[in-house]
Write a structure and sequence with these properties.
This protein has 13 helices and nine strands. Helices cover 42% and strands 14% of the residues. It is an alpha/beta fold. The longest helix has 20 residues.
Length: 308
Amino acid sequence: MRGRDLLSIADLSPSELELILETAMALKDGGRQPLLAGKTLALVFEKPSLRTRVSFDVAMRHLGGDCLYLSPPEVGLGQRESPEDVARVLSRYVDCIAARTFTQQTVQVLAEYADVPVINALSEEEHPCQALADLLTVREQKGKLAGVTLTYIGDGNNVANSLALAGAMSGMRIRFASPQGYEVPREVLARAEALAAGSGASVEQLHDPAEAVNNSDVVYTDVWASMGQEREGSERKEAFAGYSVDEKLMSKAKPDAIFMHDLPAHRSEEVSAAVIDGPQSRVFDQAENRLHAQKAVLALLMSDEAVA
């Protein structure tokens, strides 16, 4: 995988996805290793972040490398400087670029013009690094991925898109429950179904949360309005009424089901405090696994040495 870009979770083959998860587990167990000594990662962000920024920065430090954060005002991506020029300039300075952008097109342009690997650290279409952390968490908690039923309640957003593709590659049973008009895009579902055909997975788009959660191993939700959708807040609250994950909804899942959320969370909206702060919640294990999954990606894309 050395020198590759990671723009979509579907850029990976099933074997490469497995390699990342295995590497993440090995690095999590093995502690800090100087696999990227002398290497530098540039974080080019158009959106604010807690987990993405800190996990990438700390990941590089754990691997013996350096990280440079470039805030929106410093770069002015697409305004002060074009993505093409940013990519060409950074390629002369750093060994990898992780970009958190408003559009998938921007990260694709960065990858096209960069001479170093480019990682999609979030766009409006996908969040592949989150999906890697999600699968790592499910695997840790359930001991496997194939055959595990994960139900996602809420907006068919970038997190849902990457989760659909990653789960389909891994043999999982993925269910989505979303209001009419907020489903996972049809083209994403079609792509996930094609991947599922080769892994024994299944992908379903439903509308009834109770039906979707029934007998699930994992229940997952996300905010109803992502960054950039704040003006739709009132409209979305109305549309998502009845889609909050509370104790009653969780009770329809298996007794040993876990709850996941990629954070930040709005208690009393998409999830009740009793669920996210309760014994079934694994959201902070999930947040920690952003670090380990990204260490694996960075090591596999940049290391000159064999990665454990």
